[in-house]
């Protein structure tokens, strides 16, 4: 019996040994697999983080700032002490006009190992983008020495020149940018300058070039090209630019208005009227739409209906010459001569301000550092009720001369108008201490 038991035990052990061997093999394989996974996890996370950073850089270069911000935020979660990432986030924040956030990331850069001159340059760009041209010469020097950063510098300088309405400098900056980098944004901005230089054909060429360079810019470029072609009295070409945007005609009042204007000029007055009525319903405070609706009735010979629309336009923008002039025409056609005579006096005052504005802005191109010119431009905006524009011009005058008395007085008027008497009193006090305009 014992012999049989021992034999059975030996047979059982013999049968189990292969199974135990297989178990040990599987266990070893699982341990090896686990160790391999652990070993690969670190490089995988690193690869994924670096991919996020590369994607953020690409989005930044192509002005997809929301995407760039999201990608870089993901990278910073795993690499919170990356100088390059904080510097790039500062650049993204600046271009998105989050200046305080940009400054915070630059503060972090200053305590991390990295080139200090990159931080200094970015701080200069933040100030310049807000209209301060104190670092203008230094930035041009940087653009010449560091062509890889020149597009960023040119974009920033162009915005500063636009804020200061220095068209010649802005045009030179954009020409330099385009010579270096065929950028859609540069062409869009140069088109804006060309329109103000009365070169509308050149503007159309720039807008079309922007559309070809970047599909993401096509919508804006088509709209701007269509508007410029309408000014040139080329409604057929304008319609060709605008029709691909027609699905947005009621959602975007600018697109809808431009389409209605093209149809109006092509004799499709019923289509234009229907679209304008729909736009008024969707966007009742859009002055340009109300004005166009009145003009359409005026051109169709219904002066009484035109008057209703044009009065509404003048109520919205009482200092807008085009609206006052159109209302004057509607009154004249109805022989409402007494009221029309009052409007004629207002038109003369508005035309005098328009002529003065043209003279001041022309002089500004040659004397950009003259605070008196900027102050006079601001006063015209104050007279026309455009308080925000007036404020920006006065602030630019005081950047040039913090003690310019006339600018402080005009700012006092601005703050009184928006019911901030304490701040107004402060500017009146500053005016008393300042230098009078010669």
Q: Can you describe this structure?
A:
Among the domains are: 38-130, Serine Threonine Protein Phosphatase 5, Tetratricopeptide repeat (Alpha Horseshoe), CATH 1.25.40; 146-232, Serine Threonine Protein Phosphatase 5, Tetratricopeptide repeat (Alpha Horseshoe); 369-438, Tetratricopeptide repeat domain (Serine Threonine Protein Phosphatase 5, Tetratricopeptide repeat, Alpha Horseshoe). 80% of the residues lie in helices and 0% in strands. It has 22 helices and no strands. The chain has helices at residues 2-61, 65-78, 83-95, 99-110, 116-129, 136-145, 150-163, 167-180, 184-196, 200-213, 218-231, 235-242, 253-265, 269-282, 287-299, 303-316, 321-333, 337-366, 371-383, 387-400, 405-417, 421-433. Helix 3 (83-95) runs parallel beside helix 5, helix 4 runs antiparallel to helix 5 (116-129) and helix 18 (337-366) packs antiparallel against helix 19 (371-383). The termini are far apart. The mean pLDDT is 90.
Structural class: mainly alpha
> Mean pLDDT, nearest integer?
90
Total count of strands? 0
Percent helix, as a range, is over 70%
Determine Rg (CA atoms, Å): 33 Å
């Amino acid at each position: 019996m014992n012999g049989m038991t021992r034999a059975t035990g030996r047979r059982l052990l013999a049968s189990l040994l292969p199974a135990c061997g297989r178990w040990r093999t599987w266990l070893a394989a699982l341990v090896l697999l686990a160790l391999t996974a652990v070993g690969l996890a670190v490089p995988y996370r690193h690869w994924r983080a670096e991919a996020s950073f590369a994607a953020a850089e690409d989005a930044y270069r192509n002005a997809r700032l929301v995407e760039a911000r999201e990608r870089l935020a993901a990278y910073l979660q795993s690499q919170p002490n990356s100088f390059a990432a904080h510097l790039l986030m500062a650049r993204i924040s600046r271009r998105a006009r989050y200046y305080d956030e940009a400054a915070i990331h630059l503060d972090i850069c200053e305590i991390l190992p990295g080139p200090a001159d990159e931080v200094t340059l970015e701080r200069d760009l933040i100030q310049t983008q807000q209209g301060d041209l104190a670092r203008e010469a230094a930035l041009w020097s940087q653009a010449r020495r560091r062509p890889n950063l020149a597009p960023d510098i040119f974009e920033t300088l162009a915005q500063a020149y636009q804020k200061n309405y220095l068209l010649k400098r802005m045009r030179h900056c954009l020409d330099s940018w385009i010579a270096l980098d065929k950028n859609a944004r540069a062409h869009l901005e140069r088109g804006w300058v060309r329109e103000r230089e009365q070169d509308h054909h050149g503007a159309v060429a720039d807008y079309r070039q922007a559309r070809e360079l970047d599909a993401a810019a096509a919508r804006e470029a088509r709209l701007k090209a269509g508007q410029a072609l309408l000014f040139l009295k080329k409604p057929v070409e304008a319609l060709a630019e605008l029709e691909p945007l027609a699905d947005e005609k009621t959602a975007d009042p600018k697109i809808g208005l431009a389409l209605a204007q093209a149809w109006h000029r092509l004799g499709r007055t019923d289509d234009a009227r229907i679209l304008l009525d729909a736009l008024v319903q969707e966007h009742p405070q859009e002055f340009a739409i109300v004005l166009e609706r009145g003009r359409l009735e005026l051109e169709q010979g219904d002066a009484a209906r035109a008057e209703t629309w044009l009065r509404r336009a003048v109520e919205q923008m009482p200092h807008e010459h085009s609206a006052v002039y159109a209302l004057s025409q509607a009154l004249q056609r109805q022989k409402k001569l007494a009221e029309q005579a009052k409007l004629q006096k207002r038109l003369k005052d508005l035309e005098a301000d328009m002529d003065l504005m043209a003279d001041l802005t022309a002089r500004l191109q040659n004397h950009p550092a003259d605070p008196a010119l900027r102050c006079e431009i601001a006063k015209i905006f104050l007279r026309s009720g455009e308080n925000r524009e007036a404020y920006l011009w006065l602030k630019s005058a005081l950047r040039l001369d913090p003690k310019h008395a006339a600018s402080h007085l005009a700012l006092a008027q601005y703050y009184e108008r928006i019911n901030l008497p304490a701040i107004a009193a402060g500017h009146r006090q500053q005016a008393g201490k300042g230098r009078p305009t010669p």
